[in-house]
Amino acid sequence: MSNLPPTGWQPSGDPKADAKAAQAYAKAQRPWFKKKRFIIPIAIVVIVVLMQLAGGEDSSPSDNSTDTNSKSSESPSTGKTESKKSEKKVDVTKVDAATLLKTFEENELQGDQKYKGKRLQITGVVSKIDTDVWNDDKYILQIGTGADFEILTVNCHGIPQSKLAKLKVGEDVTVVGDFDDGGSLGVEIKKCSIV
């Protein structure tokens, strides 16, 4: 029996060393969920998820309702609104999805400054037609470059379901919409329409 290796904590004779060793052994025997190496990454993931939830689409439903009201109020008005409409059509910036995504991948601040407040005409490949994260009744057109395993896409909000139903994954598409936001999850475009 004396040839068996020692198991667990064994006293050495030095009281200070024994106390430190006992403390280290007790610390090592804690359950996994009480250890910092697990608590800190889990806390970071929870914080990131909460930030993403808080930073989602905050005003899309009100934008859509305002948009329909503004169209109905503009139609019976004078020619001044027609000239404003034509000015807005002139201010359309043409860009392909690959260039737009690359701009935000390289420098998000530069992309936000370049496209903020602009109406964009975006050409790309239908990557996916999916439901909105927060509303299963709304569908989003995701436009990419056509490459396999794309992570970033241009997400177009506000396209009627009847138009989306005619599209197929992999076909070329051109949309016009207002730039909303860009970042590590892609580029968000609101008030989109298919050209």
Mean pLDDT, nearest integer?
78
Structural class, from helix and strand content?
A: alpha/beta
Q: Fill in the CATH topology of the largest domain.
A: OB fold (Dihydrolipoamide Acetyltransferase, E2P)
| CATH superfamily grouping of the largest domain | Nucleic acid-binding proteins
Number of strands: 6
- State the distance separating the first and last CA atoms: 85 Å
Instruction: Report the principal-axis shape.
Output: elongated
**H and E string:** HHHHEHHEEEHEE
Described by strand count, sense and barrel closure, the largest sheet is: 5 strands, mixed, barrel
% residues in beta strands: 15-25%
Please give the share of residues in helix. 40-55%
Give the helix tally.
7
Level-1 CATH class name of the largest domain: Mainly Beta
- Radius of gyration over all CA atoms, rounded: 28 Å
